[in-house]
Design brief:
Largest sheet: 6 strands, mixed
Number of helices: 6
Structural class: alpha/beta
Oligomer: single chain
Helix content: 25-40%
CATH class: Alpha Beta
CATH topology: Rossmann fold
CATH architecture: 3-Layer(aba) Sandwich
Number of domains: 1
CATH superfamily: Vaccinia Virus protein VP39
Distance between the termini: 58 Å
Shape: globular
């Protein structure tokens, strides 16, 4: 079971985002798990962000309450940064990015650590491991690191190139990853005119 601590290890999270923003920029940011908005409030003072949309499924004054995975599930979005700072599994968001993203995108994932005897692995994560059924919680804790690797590797199966990955120092209850996904240009058959 994971313990949610909003912005646990804030310096590491900021350093990870700054690394990618310095290299790739951030014209349009979708903050899928806005929480109190601390991360992007700081980053927006340091970087030119033309469009920022922060949502969360928890109600808060002045914020749109929405299941952010559903936003990414809809084709046609044009974010070049997707920040999924959840303390649970980010895999629903991740697969929606892989399935519906149309251009290069930087993705930040916070992955809640599944511990022995508790925690969850979604059906989608289990599918990536070739396990089409639910398993006991203790096994989920043991399989969690493999599920992370399998889910991340699925980017290749969806036609993306992974240009860069970085992992920040872990927090007490989560891993922090940054990935730059590149959508290769379609290859043309040179034999046809």
């Amino acid at each position: 079971m994971t313990t949610q601590t909003d912005n646990d290890n804030l310096p590491a999270k900021l350093a990870l985002r700054r690394h990618f923003l310095d290299r790739y920029g951030a014209a349009s940011v979708f903050d899928a798990c806005q929480g109190s908005g601390v991360l992007w409030k700081i980053l927006r003072t340091e970087y030119q962000v033309e469009r920022y949309w922060g949502v969360d499924k928890k109600e808060a004054r002045g914020r749109l309450t929405i299941d952010s995975a559903r936003v990414l599930e809809s084709p046609g979005w044009t974010f070049d940064v997707v920040d999924v700072d959840t303390y649970d599994e980010p895999w629903a968001h991740w697969f929606h990015v892989l399935e519906n993203g149309r251009a290069d995108v930087t993705v930040f994932l916070t992955i809640g650590l599944v511990r022995m005897g508790g925690g969850q692995l979604s059906g989608r994560a289990l599918d990536q491991l070739g396990i089409p059924f639910d398993i006991p919680p203790g096994l989920k804790g043991q399989l969690s690191p493999l599920a992370v690797e399998a889910c991340l590797a699925s980017a290749l199966l969806h036609g993306w190139e992974v240009a860069e990955t970085q992992e920040a120092p872990r927090g007490r209850s989560a891993r922090y990853l940054g990935l730059r996904l590149v959508k290769p240009a379609p290859k043309h058959d040179k034999g046809k005119s």
